[in-house]
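Changelog-adjacent note: as of this version, every example in the card shows the full chain rather than a window. The one below runs 247 residues end to end.
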Amino acid sequence: MRGREALIDIQFQDTLVQGVFLERLNRFVLVCELPSGSREKVHLPDPGRLKDLLVPGGPIWLQESNDPKRKTKWSAVMTHDPTNDIYVSLNTQYPNRLVLEAFQLEMVEELKDWRLEKAEYKVGGSRFDFLLTHKQNDQKLLLEVKSVTMVEDGMGKFPDAVTARGARHVEELTHLQTKGNYQTAVLFIAQRTDLQGITSAPEIDPHFARVMERAACQGVRFFGRSCIVTPDRISLDGPIPVYTKKD
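Full-length structure tokens:
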């Protein structure tokens, strides 16, 4: 849509510090070494396995927090995949922020007939990332955004760890789609550039793969985007295909 000129981005400027990843204590806490040589516990926003990205001794970029209520002073922002020589974002909040700005600027070509109505929209007991309204009528569309970091043979894979929550979201979208009250869609945001498409990972989460394929058959639409990640910023890049069949 915009070629390589990414206009929608989150700038880091001089806020990042390059450290060294040492170990992972649990899903959300790392131990990293700062340039000063001190070892710090670091918040990890991405609960996925990240086994090919978090390699002991590898570089990791950190951001300091000024929030006195936080248990950890630092957050992991990105790492570097040496296999493909590419930066990969580790913050699962960035995709939603980028998509929100893209809708505000009306720069989501895949959904150009829809305008943003509300973020964090609740239907029954469920909350969805975005509610959209068709520009020509009153039809509504519920959109879920999912972050992708794992790549295998040039293909982005989701999820990289079993996600009951992710499967439930897609099942709920399928139910609402079949009822006819809403149009529904899922937008995968790959927080890296080195991929040609996105698909499920049945070898990791066969249930999600089945749910995703069933959803596509019932009319839930699936879209994909990649991101350009550098030590200075993460930028929303162009569309990439999503393959919904397990094979």
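Structural remarks: Helices lie at 94-104, 164-179, 206-217.
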